[in-house]
């Protein structure tokens, strides 16, 4: 088992959406997820996070807590968590019980990353929540309630409802965001913050600035800790990496067009498949992606870290071919080890 590796002194983690492939099944996706997690552990990645999305035929990790348990059971040391749980979709008590159970089963290895977006469309959000309050403006209150289940001293109320298992356990809570809202809340609460630069690159630096400028030390953190998400698609050559990246581009193009489907195999060129408007829209979302050969990826990652001053990276790699996806993370691990 390899020890944890770093890139220019900071740890690197994995963000997995457990992609469902064209021609594949969710069962295949979960097998691939476990295989990638086992390799990530061997290669020295710090965390393996899974994301909650619903009503999306390309993503198998909708029951995120269940998949986290499956990955943790099939690995031995890597931290496993959510990137993230969309808290407005759930009663805070349920999440406290679920992650209390996970922490009890896999002590010292579970992370709870929380987001305030639904991770889906409004119709599906209603199916999950059973009410029409979709703006998630009560997210700070939900966060406070959730934290009080783990540590009742965080509330002045006489708690008549308790989380068993959950109470008294140290489950690290992260706030996730793609704008400034969660950055400011994470700063005010003194919590670690993870920013979704992999689909919101233009908001990255402003959100990190808010987080760092407004950070208040807490019993969790004495100084800010920011993890930044980034798409990395690495291959032996720049040309191959660009070809592999067309699967990610097709997926986001289908999201723009509301034509959801499984992750598609790569194509020779995206020209003729998108309009100029769609190409510009994808650039807005995917413009921060790091795609290329080992040398290209290393140089682009260095620049990315210089710009963001991230304390940790979490890498998403939506690659159709599982072996190519493994190879991309292996290349990154070799860059970390260099």
Question: What does this entry look like structurally?
Answer:
With 338 residues, the protein is an alpha/beta fold. Helix content is 43%, strand content 15%. It is built from eleven helices and ten strands. Strands 2-3-4-5-6-7-8-10 form an eight-stranded parallel beta barrel, surrounded by eight helices. The chain starts with 5 loop residues before the first strand and ends with a helix. The relative contact order is 0.14. The model has no long low-confidence stretch (mean pLDDT 94).
Tell me briefly what this model is:
The protein is α/β, with parallel strands linked by helices and 338 residues long. The protein has helices spanning 26-43, 64-73, 92-105, 122-129, 139-150, 180-189, 204-214, 238-256, 276-286, 294-308, 322-337, and strands at 6-7, 10-16, 47-50, 79-86, 110-115, 173-177, 193-195, 226-234, 290-292, 312-316.
Percent of residues in helical segments? Answer: 40-55%
Mean pLDDT across residues: 94
Describe the main β-sheet briefly: 8 strands, parallel, barrel
Distance between the termini: 18 Å
Strand content: 15-25%
Number of helices: 11
Count of DSSP E strands? 10
Order of helices and strands: EEHEHEHEHHEHEHEHHEHEH
Show unreliable segments: none
Please tell me how large the radius of gyration is: 19 Å
Shape: globular
How does the helix and strand content classify structurally? Answer: alpha/beta
Secondary structure: elements and pairs:
Elements: E1 6-7, E2 10-16, H1 26-43, E3 47-50, H2 64-73, E4 79-86, H3 92-105, E5 110-115, H4 122-129, H5 139-150, E6 173-177, H6 180-189, E7 193-195, H7 204-214, E8 226-234, H8 238-256, H9 276-286, E9 290-292, H10 294-308, E10 312-316, H11 322-337
Parallel strand pairs: 2-3, 2-10, 3-4, 4-5, 5-6, 6-7, 7-8, 8-9, 8-10
Antiparallel strand pairs: 1-2
Helix pairs in contact: 1-11, 3-5, 6-7, 8-9
